[in-house]
Amino acid sequence: MNNRRRLLRIVVTGLLMTSGVRASDLADGDSALKLLELLKAKDNAFDNAILRYTTWGERRIDFPWWKSPPRSAEEQALMDLGPQLIRFRFREQMITRGRDTTFTREADKDVKQESDGWSFVPYQKWGETEGVVREISDSKRSTPGDRTFDIRKRGVPIGSVSEERMALEFIHGFGFGKRIKTIESIVREGNMRIIRGTIRIWWEDVSTFRVELGDDLLVKKARIDCDVRGNLTRFEVTTEGAIDRQGFVFARAGHFKRMALGAKNAKERVGEPSVVKEFSAQFDDVRFRLRDDEYTTLIRMEITPGTQVNDYILNKKYRVEKDNTITDLGPAVPMRP
Could you say which of 56, 68, 221, 263 has the lowest number of CB atoms within 10 Å? Predict the structure, then answer.
């Protein structure tokens, strides 16, 4: 990035956080480059922050294919149940600093989030910091305090944490600018601009987008069509309302859907298009400019008594007992004979 672009980004970011720069400040004849710089600056302004929100919806759960055949009577019973559709509602938060992201999710106790033998874990905390992915999950069993703690390296250029952050940014009406490669057309319709162009979701996809952008720089509606080596994916996002916090505008609520459309060549298509992920969300609160000690506390993951640790970096598995003694459970990935 040349000095002119770097200076523009710094200035626009500062304005976004102090005076609430709006897309309406652009003349309709201004360049696509200028609009894209403004969108990127808004996305970059969401940093060193904690965003709190509520998610809800329904999720289809089935016995995981990688556990087949079942290894216990309990697993056999779950396989026999077949796919289950379960309602969920979670209180969540997302903490960001640069590329690093940490999520916390707690089940809403007022919503029944189970069906027969299937249920969601009551508490999760997971994230990626400095290239290491960590995840804590409380047990679904009735025994209090039992949890697992997984530690692994970031596996691919765009991992699950990055994809979760992308979905949460989209559903709150931003996060598109830093992914857009080119804006090919801008059409004014009332108090919105319809913009079309190319976007990069992963690292090898060929993707196009259509976005309805409000004069508050908030994405009201978006559709993204992705082609990854002939495998087609579609994202659809809609948002409602707007909430301004320190010049940064968030959607009050939104809906996110990701669909697998099959192969580009009809002869290779297997099955019908299917929904991979779908949920709704509501903005609750946000706080910017976290102090170092606050940030450290928010992302901390402690190995408490009753935790089984699966460390895939050191290839160790062990359990911290209730009396803080350590039980060695062998390698995290058993060696093949």
Answer: 68
